[in-house]
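Look at one such:
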Amino acid sequence: MYRVLVYASQSGCETAVSNEVTINVATDIEITSQPVGGSICTGGDILLSVTATGSPGLKYQWQYQSGSNWINTGINQSTYNTGSLTTTTLYRVLVYANQNGCETAVSNDISVIVTPDISISAQPQGGSICTGGNFTMSVTASGAPSITYQWEINTGSWTSIPGANASTYNTGVLTATTQYRVFLSSTASGCEDIFSTIITVDVTPDIAITSPPVGNAICSGGSHTMTVAANGSPGIQYQWEIYSSGIWVPISGATASTYIAGPLTSTTEYRVFVYANQSGCEDVYSSPVTVTVFPDITISAQPVGGAICTGGDFNLTVTASGSPDIPVSYTHLTLPTIYSV
């Protein structure tokens, strides 16, 4: 605290005493809360702020970096809005006062990162499953900071699925064909939200064999073609099997709906395994079928000729075995008439 005495040495002059005055001494300026940068999308903005103490009558000068130079911007406030930005920019703030002895405080350099808007680089894909199966979908996106996801289901209108907030979503058990999409968003300034394409998960019945394979009888060394028809599951696959030494053994390469068995020399049993890789699809086996193998045809009793008169007839007989189609077919040859003289 100060005062001043004003006086003179001449006789009769009374000393005048000034009012008492106080000189307040503050600490130097100190930034107690630094400004914080962040990320925005192209065209967005961000609000920067600083908190400082020390000198009375604090003043603020915000600056951004252009090349190697710091350019003054904004007005004398502790907060600053960048305005619309299209490129990543570096900022700082000078905090100062006009009082004598006050040293200017310079904040940390902070970066406002500008990213492109959200873009989907890999759309989710639909597919097919069987009744009771489930299906996993995923989306890949980039651009905006802190992308959030919300999967939606079409139930006549688009409805958000509770808890479906990751880039990947599993449908859970489905019994009917269903449509899905995903909503991608970001709370960062300037970021435009987008929807993925609409995808369909087709739900089909389980596999059913509509026409089973049929066995047959053949002669030794012959072959037999078998076919199975099935529907229901998408992407039906086939594996023919042979019964050998008491177990069913897959036949290498026999993966079509038709299989040619043979050449065979012994009676053999077959079946086909019908399956699909889609979720929920129940695999089925056909009933076993038998291809019976008989020996080749042999004649055990030859036909015997004889003599007749003109206009008579004669019975010829043959006995044969081997083929599954006995009696066998016979070919009748017409012989030329022979005359005796």
User: Anything to note?
Assistant: The mean pLDDT is 91.
